[in-house]
Amino acid sequence: MYLYNLKLKKIELIVVIFSVELNFSYLCMLKNQDMKRAIFPGTFDPFTIGHYSIVRRGLNVFDEIVIAIGKNQSKKTLFSVEKRIDIVKQAFPNENRVKVLEYDSLTVDFARSVDAKFILRGLRTVSDFEYERTIADTNNIISGIETVILFTESAYSHISSTVARDLISYGKDITEFLPRGVKV
Ligand code: ADP
After folding, report:
1. Is 75 tagged catalytic?
2. What are the residues facing 123 on neighbouring strands?
């Protein structure tokens, strides 16, 4: 009798564990379906504190952001892809909601390949506006992917990768242009 009870208890325990496991997998599945993932595409030559601020604030909107480093063969860059990836990793050492990947395809194809339904971009000036709008419209028409644009924080509106590269070419220090703790 005692043995029989023990057997029954074991079976009950297994059933409970199994159903907890099932519920957990189901919740994970729901969570993944609802996950808002965006890519933040750019050349990031180099990734600046302006870019960093857009990603930080983007994390209030999205569950996960994939920083997508464009590897356009025809575009000559100062920093190698490996170095550009390393800079992003230094900027987000403990943030598991930020990923970094390189890509050399059409941006919307890359977004689809990582299951992202949004593209995140930053806007500094009026001159950025027309360019960003054209690209956002085109991407939406060809893929249905929405672009979400955040205005730059005014403290960083003068920061650009182009100016950072110019300063480097004159041997100047660009620490102030980079996210805190990043070394190039
Ligand atoms: P791209 O080569 O596609 O222009 P960039 O690396 O220059 O890529 O920029 C990627 C995105 O970051 C763009 O949306 C750009 O407008 C934005 N961005 C660049 N600098 C800043 C900044 N200082 N503040 C906010 N957004 C910025």
Report:
1. yes
2. 151
